[in-house]
From TrEMBL:
Organism lineage: Eukaryota, Viridiplantae, Streptophyta, Embryophyta, Tracheophyta
Protein name: Uncharacterized protein
Species this chain originates from: Sorghum bicolor (Sorghum)
Length: 247
């Protein structure tokens, strides 16, 4: 497992901590105050992600505990942002969900607006002003040993860590990779290739991280959105953009 050059060339301190029970060594990242002052080969990628990724905050009314998960914009047009996320984020009853956009705008997400199919959830949120950039996605499936990146948040709103790893196993609808997990990796962290294109979404951690691939995402999204059966993801996005522009 390796950290991206973004981390290696930042001013973050890295400590090696020994876990006596498991006899393993854990890398612990100690973030400096200004995570915006990051440099390295992936600095442009990092800035691009800050303009794209949206944060979900799920909380129980009356309780202080909450957790965060990423949402991935696939359509941003005409004041509306259509996003996908991992469905297990929404499967706990009686929770409230806030959508925090890159510019800090916060919108409450109505449970009745969320559509779920298998591992995938999809929803649309109206937003005044500037919309986040939609992610670019790859039509090519990942291959064994391919270099990939996941994203972690270390403070509210800002994706502050790019974590690099390699694909360790490829299945028909999913793959595994060895990117070091963070606080919400298995809650739907996007997986990107070296071309900054979306290639999957993390859903589990079994020592290595499992991710659904773009075939699975397209298949489940086509079951959520009427009129998109058997469409590729590109075709589904075009369908959604046309529908939103017509509103």
């Amino acid at each position: 497992m390796r950290c991206s050059p973004l981390l290696k060339q930042s001013t973050n301190k890295v400590k090696l901590r020994h876990n006596a029970e498991s006899k393993d060594f854990l890398w612990v990242f100690v973030m400096d105050q200004d995570v915006g002052a990051l440099h390295g080969d992936n600095h442009a990628f990092h800035i691009e992600l800050r303009r794209s990724l949206v944060q979900l905050v799920s909380s129980q009314p009356g309780e202080g505990q909450s957790f965060s998960a990423p949402a991935i914009p696939i359509v941003s047009v005409n004041g509306s942002c259509y996003m996908i996320a991992l469905s297990k984020v929404f499967r706990q009853p009686n929770r409230q969900h806030r959508v925090i956009f890159p510019d800090g705008t916060t919108v409450m997400l109505r449970v009745e607006d969320i559509r779920m199919q298998g591992s995938l959830a999809a929803f649309s949120v109206n937003k005044p002003g500037e919309l986040p950039n939609r992610v670019r996605f790859s039509e090519q499936q990942v291959s064994h040993n391919q270099e990939v990146y996941t994203v972690n948040y270390e403070r509210m709103r800002e994706p502050s860590m790019l974590v690099r790893g390699r694909v360790t196993h490829v299945g028909q609808m999913s793959f595994y990779h060895d990117c070091t997990p963070g606080s919400f990796t298995d809650l739907g962290s996007p997986v990107f290739n070296e071309q900054r294109e979306l290639v999957g979404m993390c859903y589990c951690n079994h020592g290595v991280i499992g991710a659904i691939n773009m075939i699975r995402i397209a298949e489940q999204l086509s079951r959520i959105k009427e009129g998109t059966a058997n469409m590729s993801l590109s075709q589904i996005v075009q369908h959604l953009e046309a529908a939103n522009q017509g509103n």
